[in-house]
Prior knowledge:
The protein has 29 helices and 16 strands. With 681 residues, the chain is an alpha/beta fold. The longest helix has 28 residues, at 278-305. The model is unreliable at 1-22, 609-637 and 677-681 (pLDDT under 50).
Amino acid sequence: MGVRQVCGEVRENSRRPLPASTTSSLALGADGLNKIIENIDILTLDVFDTILARRAVDPTDVFRWIETAEGWTGFASARISAEADARRRHAARGQEVSLEEIYEVLELTMSLPPNALSKELKAESRFLYSNPAITDLISRARSAGRPVIAISDIYLSSVQVNSLLKASGVTVDKVYASADFRNSNMGKYNGKLFSHMLATECVLAEKVLHVGDNLVSDIANGQAAGLCVLETQQLHRLHCKSDPNAAALRPFVGSTSGSLVLGQYIKWLTHSAELLSPIETFGYAYGGPIIVGFVQYLVTQAKKQGISRFLLLERDGLIIEAAFKALGITEVTYRSVPASRRMMVFPALVNSDLRRIESLFEGHQSITERSFFEILALTPNDFVPDNKEALPFFEHFYRHESFLRAVARQEKSLILDFFAEEEAIIAEGKKVAWVDVGWALTSITALNEILGHDIPAFCIGSHNRTSAGLPHEGYLFTRSQPTEVVEAVLGGVEPIELIFSATSHSTVCLKKKDGLLVPLQRAKSPAEIIRDGYVAEIWRGALAFIKEFSDLLPGVKMEDLRSYNKTALAALCKSPMNLQYDILAEIPHDRLVGGTIWHKIRDFWTPSLCSWGAIPRKTAENTDLMLMLQIARRRPHKLLKDLLAYRFLRVIIKLSPFLPISMANRFARSAAKRDPRRRES
């Protein structure tokens, strides 16, 4: 009697993702496997999705990858059709065909180079990798002196299958491939290949253990042939049940990029020898793809628009610089430049009025003189450190206007010196461009004003309040278009900003020291030091993805990866998995200039109410707010929900004297987002 072992599954509502090392496609442990091997004479295994897995969820995505990498327009659809036509042509003899027969049909419909078939095999080898749970089983069988045989229903010959196995580091004693027996119609699909194998190897059926993933050809037909059978689970299905990032990305495998990103992520989880932190896996699953996609987009735009240098604004640009280096980008030059809103906006005060620096004090309705100068990182001679009177920022400005404008002139002069090299490039008729995460692009607007050039910018996204005179393009959206992406992302920008964060110090301004221009940097607060730990983990994961995905980039269309990133990140920002939100929401975050008031991401990131299950109940500050959110949740129309939330939050704000300042500010921001007058305008 056959033995069927179904893979164990980790509950979907597990509170923490399992480390990759504990996630096996075989539910049996060492003792169970050893016991079975003791009682068999031969181990047979299915090949694809058992011994070998692919860095793509859909096998036909390999054809789509080839089409882009080789520039063979229409190859994927023609290759799929050719296989179907070849099977119809030879249907009288049986179900299987060979790869050579497929290409005989394919060459009738499109012109291909003579080595096209070998290029497909090479591409398959690039995508395939071994399943460690199965290679461990093979090692156990070999240690026990049991022969190992691969049996596959595939259009590849046994020689071709064996070559792919060896390329992935797997050695077997023999390969039975249905393509070799197509003229006699023998395969696992009808059970005849099992009978042929038993007769050829002169072994009793009950003395053979067969392992495979297909419930019909491997399990049912193996049992019918009298074999002991052990079911294994496809790796992408297994990890989508145990890992929140994999589960969240699963809906997007309909695109080639989505299939490849998830496939690459599954390979990483499967082969990781270390215990992976949830933050590192987030960096790999989300940080890596958007950074790779953004760099791919930048290089494309550089070629298209004739840009010779990118200026990567710190600190957001540091991960882009690391990606440029990891990918070996040489088509365009680049350099990171120290930057902050304070550094760029304040010197623009020279030729502007007070409104120019208003953005530096966003979130501060009234402020003490001490806090005013802490944000600007300045100390005038007539500063009174004990003056605790809270005033609107412009009152402090008028009191110290001559001092502030003089410092702004000095800082502007230093900025002009710093960008002298780019001035020379522009004078030669060459193009340079800024790179930043974006949203308002205030710093870049100020830089262009200081330098006196309309230098274009490339960013992750920009909203409709971006300066009308700034030429720029966004990777995810530009000037709040497309709307559906903007609404999702701008409602939860914190995870994206986390991806582009860096552990370096924030620059305040440039100073001259020993004749050299050096950045003056702020000291870090305890909260920022904690955040740095998370950022380091994200960098680790993101850079690992960039390195391991780089060989697939030649076959990934820029617009396809761009579209994938839009949908995947919009879904993350709007409706994260419960585990994703729980982990990311606790990370320190600050929106204000100068890092003066630190919160946590959950204080800003409020996913859509229509995904209630993804929002931990602790985001509600009290039972009244919880009740209000529950009432809003039952209203299907978003405008109505926002109106209810707005009115309730306005009531809370009036109680601000009895609430902590941070909580009152938080409620004020939430109310402003939902203000119906803002939507009407």
